[in-house]
Amino acid sequence: MGRFSTRAIVLGLAAPLGALVFSALICAFILMVTDHSPIETVDAMSAAAQRPRTLVNSLNTATTYYLAAVAVAVGFKMKLFNIGVDGQYRLAAMLSATLAGAAFMDSLPSFLRITMTILAAMLVGAAWSGLAALLKVTRGVSEVISTIMLNAIATYLVSYLLNPARLAQNVPGSNNISTRPITEGGRVDGLVVTGSTSKIFALVFLAVAVGFLYWFVLTRTRFGFELKTTGLSESAAVASGVSVKKMVVYSMLISGAVAGLVGMPQLLGASYSYALDFPAGIGFTGIAVALLGRNHPVGMAVAALLWGFLDNTANSLDVAGVPREIVLIMQGVIVLSVVVAYELIRRYRVRAEQHEVGRALGRTKTLEEVSS
Amino acid sequence: MRRMRGIRLAAGLLALGLGLAACGSETTPGTGGDTTSGTAPKASNVKVGLAYDIGGRGDQSFNDSAARGLDKAKAELGIEVKELEAAAGETDAQKEDRLIQLAEGGYNTILAIGFAYEGAVAKVAPTFPEVKFAIIDSEAPEAANVANLVFAEHEGSFLVGAAAALKSTTGKVGFIGGVNVPLIQKFEAGFTAGVKAVKPDATVDAKYLTQPPDFTGFNDPAKGETAANGMFDAGVDVVYAAAGGSGNGAFKAAKAKGKLGIGVDSDQYNLPSLADVKDVIITSMVKQVDVAVFDFVKSVNDNTFKSGKKVYDLKAGGIDYSTSGGKVDDIKAKLDEYKQKIISGEIKVPATK
Amino acid sequence: MATQDTGEPGGHPAVELTGITKRFPGVIANSDVNIAVRPGTVHALVGENGAGKSTLMKILYGMQRPDEGTIFVAGKPIVFTSPADAIKAGIGMVHQHFMLADNLTVLENVVLGGEPRSGLGLDFDTARRRIREISDNYGLNIDPDDLVDDLGVGARQRVEILKVLYRGARTLILDEPTAVLVPQEVDELFGNLRELKAEGLTILFISHKLDEVLAVADEITVMRRGTTVASVLPKDVTARQLAELMVGSALPVPELRESTVTDRPVLEARGLTVTSADGRKLLDNVSFTIHAGEVLGIAGVEGNGQAELVETLMGIRQPASGTVHLAGKDITRTSTKHRRESGMGYIPEDRHRQGVLLEATLWENRILGHQTRKPNARGLLLDRRGARADTQRIVEEYDVRTPSIDVNASALSGGNQQKLIVGREMSSKPDVLIASHPTRGVDVGAQAAIWDHVRRARAEQLAVLLISADLDELIGMSDTLAVILRGAIVGHYDPATVTPQELGSAMTGAGREG
Questions:
Q1: Could you tell me which of C344, C282, C325 has the C-alpha nearest to residue C487?
Q2: A270 and chain B in contact, CB less than 8 A
Q3: TM spans, by residue (chain A) (predicted)?
Q4: Which residues of A touch C354 (CB under 8 A)?
């Protein structure tokens, strides 16, 4: 990399940081216009940043966001838009929760139970995204359309199955319904942090492992190379002997399998059952996080942590009298400005690199050089 | 305070700068909470914190009803209140955090609106034994400092079901549920029973606007309108909209087609936001969340707090049907007769389908 | 050769560019370009691909603005901010790629965008009259009511010229106008240009084909590496001298020394037929055999089935009927990957679409198409170190001008990208090389190097299918020549005896009748 690397790092950071500062300014402006103090807001956020519970919750939220972002990024890397991560993880969480809570599981060793649950979730996620892949390669249906549709179908399927007559049971004395709760041995105990009643999801390590695998597969394997190639230029991929259809199927299946993991930290680390109030919409957050992190394993981790932190400061803002919606505004502005900033930086980078090459090769000669 | 803020700001930025990786690092527990509780107590030492369900104040329905009770408590008892809202798709941990922030902020009377809080209340209440909690619509969290305020929605729904059957000329009535969850299914069960009690051969056309986890069905008038129009076209002439803000659309459709509607939760005939469609609202199934909220706050204020389940049913007056507008005056006697039979136990209204 | 004063004493040049400098990343920029074009002449601008001719023309046509320097039209300095300004100043451009709508008539195409108005309606009658007038005046032989779809390439080009004249141009820029023409059409075009010149119009003719330039130009300006290096008169120079001016060094010649053709068939196509979605035959019963050590050249006007042939051979496209055999094995139904692994190298026609990943580094581009093989892969894993080392070797052996193998391919000029592609494909020691326009857009030095590599590999029994628009290259490099027309092989020629004119006739179908 040599001389390019320092600048590459600076440029890499310029876009997200610039976007952050820009969105902070926008938010400050909105706060002032609506008669709230930006200082109070920063103050409340800083206060939140020092509460261990907020930080633990942020990390936990970030864990699920990160998994969703990786799931999305696998598709993004080959210009495949898996909008269906949301449906995939909800269906996967619901069905694997049913399996994990089933009575016969109680007698099995803990490790086996957890592994089975996670594998089941991955299978369900992959199967659901596989439908979209199948439609794309056999009928040419755009995966954007089909995954959106499959999200809706997953919603109906889950509410059909999440019924006392089928896979669920009424929570005694409550208006909630849930799958049979996972008993002790099937759970993944969290890490205790002083000053916080929430524990850190142990499956945060699963997310780290997924991130590492994502990086390894993309940069170190033939498969990853073919995936990236397809994303950069489908025609070049075809000419190079890459079967684009196969790549569509594989990457959709992988994306869906990772999507299946999204619900696992919450399910195995906190909820222990899939109920009506199981968090929804993480798949869409994943898209934003993947965008913000530029599909980069570390970038997405930082983006997920930022997102998780912003989400978890909302309560503190509310207490301080700042409308919690400012968090949503901030997140939205960040995504928009990051997309714009990245494009600007990308153009600048291409030009800079071409200049560099031009300078190094002395392509443009001076008059004296030419006439001598 | 100024100085404090500066230090905190710097520390916060530092934490952000470190990429938040330092989650487990040493921060003395409780500092954040303590600093915000610096205000002096008022005359009444009751400070009420209220955590809304998704939608919050202004949802024209459930949350608003709770808000009315809170407003009343604030006005009549002169207490300090704090309201916090929920976000869509949040986890239990975030709900817990909300309750904890209230408790740590010195709010010693905390209301959790909606069963979604049952996990959070169950976890948070034991760690703050001196704080009094109330949860609406859930019996699940049991603790010495938790009051479970539940409603017999099926009983009220039975009465408006009877009213629908009495008013219907076609023998077809409709039920629009906001979201297909057990709570709303309870409304449907009672409503259907009420209809059948009057006219055993009448049919009930039931439709839910959305499926969980999509809770927009409680706040999407367009969906309500579409569903109601479909029913009216199929011969239905009275629709019970147990769909929060979506009911608005159903009433609009009823007005356009010259049909009738039945409201829910509040006495919707008297809601200013529904003024232009109020003449189609013959009655409303009134679920007095405001009464429950006020009662609870008052009980804490009066030192008469009682933990455990408190059922707001027809008998207790927590559930009723409304008569505003005079559209059911002709059948009022009949409805009151059913009401008495339910109160006396002669009629057992089913709570499930 | 000294730069001579081309300014007309007394009168102003029709167009004059002085000190034009354009800093433009990556590709050649213009640096202190000086040209004076006298009115009523054909002025040729020559230079290799990438010498900066196109940039200069874009500046002159208002598509780009120079960083420094001035444009004078008829002696007055003018700043163009858009092509519309250039048109207003009487400068028109005939692009290399025609911009005509096939399903409209000549008349409609000409008035498109500049509709003649009389009152509210379109005044087609006046327009028709004017087109006839222009056509007659300059001997363009165009009927305004012909459908463009029915016109041949030469006629289409004349429509483009007419379009520009119709808009009132007095100075015409022709960008590589002969690239798409066969020799006979080239002669016709030159006749037209002489007519235009006789009528007092000025023509700026851009080309890198020196024989043509010498035949038609009154004055010639040579560009090299972004700047003008000489202005000469055709009578003073030979084609070879001109070429050496362009390159700045002695010239390579495409030729094969002795035959290395063996009798071992390597690649055989039998009765290949490819149909389009609407049932048209894109390839019609194409058969040939290429032996080890043989170069088969395919001559043809672009768009006559060459692309389909190549894609069918590479397994990117499936034939409706017919077979492809590689070293005696039927590979008709096998995947592109299998074919590549079995020893087929591929230099695609469109390098940006098929040859490189612009947004990937050079070493990643080394892996492209060879991702399953050494030195790029070990089992399922990539061998990054191996790939990088081999990329470094290619960069050196094939003279790819780059500061590092870590820059993106987009930072390199087209010629250097092509050198990387050729190096990559030759590095896998293929048995067959499918080469579409292997030297298109590369400088003369690289061209010679690529030819050398092909020759050396041919001596080591490589079989080559060579497709090129450069007839000299085809004739010089091929052991056998076939002409393709409308998807069918219409003739075989011996490169030792055939002339470009004969080939040209065969390519347009004239050979069969005549």
A1: C282
A2: yes
A3: 9-34, 54-76, 88-105, 111-135, 144-162, 200-218, 248-268, 326-345
A4: 233, 235-236, 238-239
B239-270 burial: b if 16+ Cβ within 10 Å, else e: bbbbbbbbbbbbbbbbbebebbbbbbbbbbbe
Q: Do chains A and C touch (3 or more CB pairs under 8 A)?
A: yes
Decide if A329 touches B, using CB distance below 8 A: no
**Cα C316 to Cα C343: distance, rounded to the nearest angstrom:** 16
Model pLDDT, residue A5: 63
Task: Name the DSSP class of C355.
Answer: I
Let me know whether A122 and A246 are in one domain: yes
Look up residue C340 and give its two tokens.
């590549």
Please check whether residue A282 touches B, CB under 8 A: yes
For residue B172, give the 3-state DSSP assignment. strand
In degrees and rounded to multiples of 5, residue B263 shows phi and psi of -90, 180
Of C229, C346, C384, nearest to A370 by CB-CB distance is C229
Q: Judge whether A239 is closer than 8 Å to chain C, CB to CB.
A: yes
Per CATH, the architecture of B47-151 is what? Answer: 3-Layer(aba) Sandwich (3.40)
* Residue ranges of domains in chain B: 47-151, 153-287+323-344
Look up tokens 């010693």; give the residue.
B108
Interface predicted TM-score (ipTM) of this complex, two decimals:
0.83
Same domain, A245 and A362: no
Q: Is A223 on the interface with C (CB under 8 A)?
A: yes
Chains B and A: 3 or more CB pairs within 8 Å of each other = yes
Shared-domain flag, residues A314 and A330: no
Q: Is residue A42 part of a domain?
A: no
Co-location of A74 and A23 in the same domain: no
Residue among C58, C115, C46 at smallest CA distance from C86: C58
Domains B47-151 and B153-287+323-344 share a fold: yes
Domain co-membership, A221 together with A312: yes
Residue A293 in any domain: the answer is: yes
Chain segment B237-289, per-residue pLDDT in tens: 999 999 988 898 999 999 999 999 999 988 889 888 888 998 999 999 999 99
CB B209 within 8 A of CB B177: yes
Find which of A50, A89, A191, A274 to mutate to test the B interface (most B CBs within 10 Å of its CB).
A50
Taking residue C378's Cβ as centre, other Cβ atoms within 10 Å add up to 12
Share of chain A above pLDDT 90, in %: 55
Interchain contact B38–A (C-beta under 8 A): no
Domain range holding A371? 1-36+323-372
| Residues of chain C neighbouring A343 (CB-CB closer than 8 A) | none
> Is the omega angle on the peptide bond into residue B213 within 30 degrees of 0, that is, cis?
yes
- Nearest C-alpha of chain C: how many angstroms from A355? 5
Q: Which residue do the tokens 């002696």 mark?
A: C75
The count of structural domains within chain A is 2
Hey, which CATH number is domain B153-287+323-344, 3.50.50.60, 3.30.420.10, 3.40.50.2300, 3.40.50.1000? 3.40.50.2300
Walk across the sheet containing C480-485 and list its strands.
C344-347, C432-436, C463-467, C295-299, C480-485, C488-493
CA distance A204 to A202: 5
Same domain, yes or no, for A144 and A191? yes
Strands C68-73 and C117-118: unpaired
Closest alpha carbon within chain C to A5: C406
Q: Using a CB–CB cutoff of 8 Å, tell me whether C355 touches chain A.
A: yes
Q: Quick one: A197 and A140 in the same domain?
A: yes
For range A149-169, the mean pLDDT: 90
C411 vs A224, A225, A354: nearest CB:
A354
Task: Give me the pLDDT at residue C254, please.
Answer: 65
**Contact C223/C56 with Cβ under 8 angstroms?**
yes
Residue keyed to tokens 């896998």:
C428
